[in-house]
Recover the amino acids of this structure.
DNA sequence: TTCCTAAATAGGACTAATTCCTATTTATAA
DNA sequence: TTATAAATAGGAATTAGTCCTATTTAGGAA
């Protein structure tokens, strides 16, 4: 699947790019570059750190993955490019996806009527900040050492 | 005004804190720490970088300013803490505030009815990504060297 | 006003995320 | 198979942000 994604986007299919896509797809927590590098280096010890950053940039530019805005200054990556929103934990680094078609329709309708002067909307993302009341259903991956921004 | 803000929040009124507040208030583009430091160092060459970061953290913790999430991994700061949203330029680092009471009401109503399983909402922020069709009405400040994340 | 003390700062070293560089390798088209 | 533009390795360089401690200071108490 990763190879197909690359081809479809007119990118050379390199093992490095495939590995980055695999790493992101297999994570369940919008991994930071650091975690992606760790994951990859377990399987492909010779893939360079610089390469991972470069591949991530390429994938973002092609719209194959997207960056997730965080408060900690560390970039995180998201394999899903279909429209969705994010739930941010207000006292940890946890971020989860949030899909809501009904909400999207409401937002689209709202902004179809209400234009913003001097601005053309291309995308609308909600950041829902709050507290998770359930622990995460974990996937694979080692939990990353994302710098803790709290006290 | 900055001094009053500090007092109201039970913070000692130091020249450093006042200077940081002035720097943020006088910027019109949600400055990064880097720009705040530049601005301050023109007027107060002896205020340390570490101090600026520490003051920013204090102010954020007290809710006097807030952090703005960006895609570039560089933190930016916002003097407004009343609820508002942000317009992000999709091909520059420009960020503008966006206030919309009507939208807030719609969102609040929506999420009052529709609970998200396993998540308690504390705050809702919209990121509107798109293109500005008017140039910025500039204020003072030197335009910062925010790292350009594009090609 | 002066004194006291907890709190805050200077400023430079340090850390870690990200970028940059170039010789080498490689995916793909012909 | 070959040519070549594109991509990578690997490590140095950069830089946003943090940390440390000796020194200074804001603000309350006397």
């Amino acid at each position: 699947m990763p190879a197909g994604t690359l081809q479809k986007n007119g990118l050379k299919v390199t093992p490095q790019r495939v590995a980055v896509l695999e790493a992101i797809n297999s994570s369940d927590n919008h991994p930071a570059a650091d975690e992606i590098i760790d994951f990859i280096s377990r399987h492909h010890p010779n893939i360079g750190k610089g390469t991972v950053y470069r591949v991530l940039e390429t994938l973002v530019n092609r719209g194959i993955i997207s960056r997730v805005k965080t408060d900690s200054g560390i970039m995180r990556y998201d394999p899903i490019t279909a429209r969705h929103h994010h739930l941010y934990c207000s006292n940890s680094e946890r971020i989860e996806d949030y899909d809501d078609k009904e909400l999207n329709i409401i937002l689209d309708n709202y902004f179809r009527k209400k234009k913003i002067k001097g601005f053309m909307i291309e995308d609308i993302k909600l950041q829902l900040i709050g507290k998770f009341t359930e622990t995460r259903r974990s996937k694979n991956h080692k939990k990353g050492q994302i710098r803790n921004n709290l006290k």
The longest strand of chain A covers residues 119-132. Chain A has one domain: 2-130. Residues 140-151 of chain A have pLDDT under 50 and may be disordered.
